[in-house]
Amino acid sequence: YFVTYLGYGNTAQVEFNEVRPYVRPETSSWVAGLECSAVHSSDGRWYEGNLVEVREGTALIRFQGETETSEVELDFIRPKLSAAAERKRKAEEEEAAAEEAKRAIPKSLEILPGDSEETIEKKKKKLKMFKRQEKKAALESLGEGRRSSWQAFKGKNKTIGKSKNFHDPRWDPTRDHGELAARLQIEKYSTFGPRDQ
């Protein structure tokens, strides 16, 4: 199929399994003053703005920095995050901040306004050492996971630990086993004379 991308204008050839029917945005929850992004008719680029009015197939948008409204097709308007999505984003930010707080520096290493130059230098050195130790611990925990997964694999794979020919006193791991088998056959038939009939 040849498709034209809405809001961009470029066309491309795509496979059948990459095409889905387009569903127009649901405008029932759109109200005047809704913050959105929309394609400006002058240059075809996306800009921030506020919804003024929803019409059939189009909407009036007042772009930031402009006093006049512009009529934009509904396909070229993207509302900002809803309140639920905004709460989810804030929760993720708080979770990331809590994770960062776990890695925060100890109170004793914080540089205070009343500290002397000598104390500040000592705290900076200790802080560098503290960060180095944290980094080393993180790398070790990563390496430990890799090591344990290899050990579990090694335990499952029986051919790594044992070889089939340890019972043979003439077995040499550095030699080609096919060559050894051929020599054994030659020795076997050369030591015995011709067959008795």
Overall average pLDDT: 78
Topology order in helix (H) and strand (E) letters: EEEEEEEHHHH
Largest sheet: 5 strands, antiparallel
Low-confidence segments: none
Output the structural class: alpha+beta
In spatial order, strands of the major sheet run 6-5-4-3-7
Distance between the termini: 82 Å
Distinct helical segment count: 4
CA-based gyration radius: 37 Å
Approximately how much beta-strand content do the residues carry? 15-25%
Quick structural overview:
40% of the residues lie in helices and 17% in strands. The chain is an alpha+beta fold and 197 residues long. Among the domains are: 34-84, SH3 type barrels; 109-160.
What does the model show?
- This protein is of the alpha+beta class and 197 residues long.
- Among the domains are: 34-84, Roll (SH3 type barrels), CATH 2.30.30; 109-160.
- The chain has four helices and seven strands, in the order E-E-E-E-E-E-E-H-H-H-H.
- It has helices at 83-102, 117-156, 158-161, 177-191, and strands spanning 2-4, 11-13, 35-39, 46-54, 58-63, 70-73, 77-79.
- The protein is flat, with a radius of gyration of 37 Å.
List keywords for this structure.
197 residues; alpha+beta; two-stranded antiparallel ribbon; 7 strands; 17% strand; Tudor; Tudor domain-containing protein
